[in-house]
Amino acid sequence: MKSMPDAILIAGPTASGKSAAALALAEQAGGIIVNADSMQVYAEPRILTARPSDEDMARVPHLLYGHASVRDAYSAGRYQADAAQALTRAREMKRVPIFTGGTGLYFGVLTEGLTLVPPIPPEIRAGVEARWKEIGAEAFHAELAERDPISALRYPPSDTQRTLRAYEVFEGTGVALPEWQKSMGKPLLAGMKLARFVIAPPRDELYAGIDARFDRMVEQGAMEEADRIAALSPAPSAAKILGLRELVAAHRGEMSLQAAKEAARTASRQYAKRQITWFRNRMADWTWMEATDKMEVITAIGKTISFTSTISPSPWGSGR
Which residues make Cβ contacts (< 8 Å) with residue 92, sequence separation at least 6? Predict the structure, then answer.
């Protein structure tokens, strides 16, 4: 017998239509949407990250969108804490939380747990970032290899966020990150009945959607937004926003707008491919859907859950 789960998870690559599907589902199921995308947490890049519009956010409650600054080094640990608060809010509102986004690591926090690395002092994090800026990515990576050779093998010099993280963990704790990763914390959604879905459109449709959406972003002012963000000296995690580097270069006359658009589209397609690879490796047991129309997705989801049942009170404890 179908019933409403305690939480619904909808993952998918960029431009797959997951946000529209989550919105339609939230309206039918009486849900609250919780962001699970590492770029949509930032306040400043509304256009570049395709964050939900004010109109969409007024239709149903949305949490963890645009609540951090691009200057912040937003981490999976902070997401864990923020998502825990979002769950509390969902309980208070008596709505089923619908987590949606494209960041596999965040879904891992929800369903698998997070590595229990102690907090790294801010001064150490700042010192590590300063060192990276001082000597450059290649030399920094060589220093990481002396401290944590396993992480250096896993992450190339171009993976700034992860190499910085591995370096700062060793500097702050004296223990290499892979050693910490052997012990995982309790999953945030442990003990809950979950409905888990991955929206993965056919590649041609997905890539066409990526291209069309980026063109719309440019028309809406993404280039000017990118230049404003660059002026804020974003943290390495925020500097990975798709299209940011290319549009800043176009705005400053370092490349043509057409060349910037082509480079950004290519980077977005490559990112989507990496996302799908992550999902296939880590979420093979989730329910996969190729549908791109939001109502087709809702119909498919409706075959596995009931939109009329109430949430089981057990995960929330007393006072539900």
Answer: none
Q: What is the pLDDT of residues 100-126, one digit of tens each?
A: 999 999 999 999 888 778 888 889 989
Q: For tokens 């509390």, name the residue.
A: 88
CB hemisphere CA count around 169 (13 angstroms): 21
Report the length, in residues, of the chain: 320
CA-based R_g, the chain, Å? 20
pLDDT in tens, 81-99: 999 999 999 999 999 999 9
* Contact indicator for 238, 49 with CB cutoff of 8 Å: no
| Residue 155 to residue 115: CA distance in whole angstroms | 17
